[in-house]
């Protein structure tokens, strides 16, 4: 499910999950003019967390493939809606699991970065600050 570590040039991935089966994953997609990267922490350990990861991973893939340049905000909103629907969180027996996610897109032509996040901040460091 995880992308290859050399998905983008001049990048590296530091991925150190606590267990082999976990709710943490990273996701990348290159649509040609936009590159998407997400870091996701699904609540729950073991199989429940892994199940959340599969739902989140699949929803991100569907969104960027079906919508031309959806942008992080729209992708994240749609992804959360799909996860909620998949877990039936609107029923009386609501599931309290969630996805903490940071999602960025980089526009290759415009050299701009867009960010959307749920429970994860974005830090911009330039010149050591």
Give a description of the structure.
With 129 residues, the chain is α+β, with helices and mostly antiparallel strands. The chain is 29% helix and 25% strand. Strands 1-2-3-4 form a four-stranded antiparallel beta sheet, with helices on one face. Helix 1 packs across helix 2. The N and C termini lie far apart (34 Å).
Short structural summary:
The chain is an alpha+beta fold. Helices cover 29% and strands 25% of the residues.
Q: Total number of β-strand segments?
A: 4
How many separate helices? 2
Work out the strand percent. Answer: 15-25%
Mean pLDDT: 76
Q: Which word captures the global form?
A: globular
Helix content: 25-40%
Q: Which class of secondary structure composition applies to the elements?
A: alpha+beta
Distance between the termini: 34 Å
For the sheet with most strands, the description reads: 4 strands, antiparallel
Poorly predicted ranges (pLDDT <50, ≥5 residues)? none
Strand order of the largest sheet: 1-2-3-4
What is the H-and-E element order?
A: EEHHEE
**How much is the radius of gyration in Å?**
15 Å
Task: List the main descriptive attributes of the protein structure presented here.
129 residues, alpha+beta, 4-stranded antiparallel beta sheet
